[in-house]
Amino acid sequence: MIENGQVAYGFDVEVAGDFEAVRGRVVEALKGQGFGVLTEIDVSATMKAKLGRDMPRYNILGACNPVLADKAISAEPDIGLLLPCNVVVSETAKEGTTKVSFMDPVSVLAIVNNARVTELGWEVRAKLEAVRDALTSSS
């Protein structure tokens, strides 16, 4: 269920600009908050290659803030099963607009039931919200 740009496990924003331009802005905004992109999955290219299916552009960026990841792994060694933070950049039906969706680390990390991890989840969420806000303030 999506309500006001939020689902139970994430939040999103529509950004003015074509897919490649917005993707680049997302990567730069993530860097500004101490994240690097460790992985990138081009879902639309994979669907085309494996299933012959065309779909709008859809990339999953695996973002990681090494300082916060280190704290999380120190608090809960198996937390790597829930890392990195995924950010999805996807084409919308509205021309000139790209959707950026963020995993909500508070929701996702709640399953760990560890107070130190929960606290880190809030810190990561604030940084991801800052990325979202940077995208909307610069559009």
UniProtKB/TrEMBL annotation:
<dbReference type="InterPro" id="IPR035923">
    <property type="entry name" value="TT1751-like_sf"/>
</dbReference>
<protein>
    <submittedName>
        <fullName>DUF302 domain-containing protein</fullName>
    </submittedName>
</protein>
<dbReference type="Pfam" id="PF03625">
    <property type="entry name" value="DUF302"/>
</dbReference>
<dbReference type="InterPro" id="IPR005180">
    <property type="entry name" value="DUF302"/>
</dbReference>
<dbReference type="InterPro" id="IPR016796">
    <property type="entry name" value="UCP021774"/>
</dbReference>
